[in-house]
Write a structure and sequence with these properties.
Elements lengths: L1 E2 L5 E8 L19 E9 L10 E6 L1 E3 L21 E4 L30 E9 L15 E2 L6 E3 L3 E3 L3 E3 L6 E3 L2 E9 L1 H4 L5 E7 L2 E5 L18 E2 L6 H4 L12 E2 L7 E10 L3 E10 L6 E2 L2 E5 L6 E5 L1 E5 L9 E6 L6 E2 L7 E9 L15 E4 L2 E10 L4 E9 L7
Parallel strand pairs: 14-18, 14-28, 16-17
Antiparallel strand pairs: 1-6, 1-8, 2-3, 2-7, 3-13, 4-7, 5-6, 9-13, 10-13, 11-12, 14-15, 18-19, 19-26, 20-25, 21-24, 21-27, 22-26, 23-24, 27-28, 28-29
Protein name: COBRA-like protein
Membrane topology: Lipid-anchor; GPI-anchor
Keywords: Glycoprotein, GPI-anchor, Lipoprotein, Membrane, Signal
């Protein structure tokens, strides 16, 4: 959903950058370009000098949520007469005469790396009374991106080089008359002040499982929001899950010590002569949420030695150029790309086989991830670093995390 002030015939493109992770200050060193860019291309001028106010005549690929007061137009039927319209993407299956390229995804964008074909969304407007040339046109302002929630902050409109477009036969190039860009950055802190996931750790050489920190995402004893969790075996579960009478906007999670909607578990499973093996499990504790097309990012030394991964898709991110220490994982479509809500099917898991090299060691937590992200949000974890001969405990660490479970 997007709200703005506008006017003329345009094609509007939303572009989600390659990995879609975040930090509390809207910047992350692992993904310095992790923004949503709104590109506003003017495709033609609309002559409407006698129109008394700014309006949207028509739209393709999206629609305004309210028409507003159009009583001043007796012989025409504008799409929207509000000066600050809110536009939403159309749903899949929209009639073809209402579509344009890259439209109609129901407002859902995947990361560019994960699914380039679904990383952009577009809609087209024919707007009146905004100017009839690049000298008189009025620049749109006050963009608000809801994706969902208050996490995105959009900057000022910047004039950029007009976009170029290839014809269907790829033999001719046309271009927009004028173009603007708006960059929207995400802050997890603005979206939600408490973490949404946590990380737990364990290994074959130490039977002590490092749990998610107590009250990572909230506490059961929170007297301000009683009833914010439900026991897994509760006979009243069906009456309190969202869609069954519970209208709370807060996630209804399974009662745990950490109270997180999502948990990621990293288990060092086996140690071979030339290889070592890790099991990753992501668990959904949210009774009202299915995470479709989820993704997981982790930072681990020397991922150049990854030999094989099972059950997940994998791509290196290489945020530091030649240094390969960051990987992105996501589910295989129609197999485990949908992380079901809390219950028997509320987890996905995979194993990774890595080669050993001269720098490999199990000491001081070398084999555990430095950072973990789930769907772009940070996960919290106590990092317990067991050695083969001793146990070391270090202070609380904020891990950028994706999912959970063991």
């Amino acid at each position: 959903m997007i709200a703005f002030l506008a006017n003329f015939t345009i094609a509007l493109l939303f572009l989600l950058s390659c990995t879609y992770f975040t930090s509390t200050d809207a910047y992350d060193a692992l993904d310095p370009h992790g923004n949503i860019t709104i590109k506003w291309d003017i495709m033609s001028w609309t002559p409407d000098g006698d129109v008394v106010r700014e309006i949207i005549w028509s739209m393709n690929g999206g629609q305004a949520t309210e028409q507003g007061d159009c009583s001043g137009f007796k012989n025409s039927f504008p799409h929207c007469c509000k000066r600050n319209p809110t536009i939403v993407d159309l749903l899949p299956g929209t009639p073809y005469n209402q579509q344009i390229a890259n439209c109609c995804k129901g407002g859902v964008l995947n990361s560019w790396l994960q699914d380039p074909a679904h990383a952009a969304g577009s809609f087209q407007l024919s707007v009146g009374r905004a100017g009839t040339s690049n000298k008189t046109v009025r620049v749109p302002k006050n963009f608000t991106l809801q994706a969902p929630g208050p996490g995105y902050t959009c900057g000022r409109v910047k004039i950029v080089k007009p976009s170029k477009f290839f014809t269907s036969d790829k033999r001719r190039v046309t271009q927009a008359l004028m173009a603007w860009n708006v960059t929207c950055t995400y802050s997890q802190f603005l979206a939600k002040k408490s973490p949404t996931c946590c990380v737990s750790l364990s290994s074959f050489y130490n039977d002590t499982i490092v749990p998610c920190p107590t009250c990572s995402c909230g506490c059961q004893s929170n007297m301000e929001k009683p009833g914010s969790c439900v026991e897994a075996n509760s006979p009243h579960l069906a009456s309190v899950v969202p869609g069954s009478g519970n209208n709370s906007s807060l996630p209804l999670v399974q009662c745990t010590s950490h109270m997180c909607p999502v948990r990621v578990h990293w288990h060092i499973k086996l140690n071979y002569k030339e290889y070592w093996r890790v099991k990753i499990t992501v668990t959904n504790f949210n009774h009202g949420m299915n995470y479709s097309d989820w993704n997981l990012v982790f930072q681990l030394p020397n991922l150049n030695n990854m030999a094989q991964i099972f059950s997940f898709n994998y791509k290196p991110l290489n945020p530091y150029g030649a240094i390969n220490d960051t990987a992105m994982l996501w589910g295989i479509r129609y197999y485990n790309d949908l992380l079901m809500q809390a219950g028997p099917l509320g987890n996905v898991q995979s194993e990774i086989l890595l080669r050993k090299d001269a720098s490999f060691t199990f000491e001081k937590g070398w084999a555990f991830p430095r950072r973990v992200y789930f769907n772009g949000d940070k996960c919290e974890a106590y990092l317990w670093l067991p050695n083969a001969s001793s146990r070391n405990y270090i202070s609380l660490l904020m891990l950028n995390g994706f999912d959970h479970s063991f």
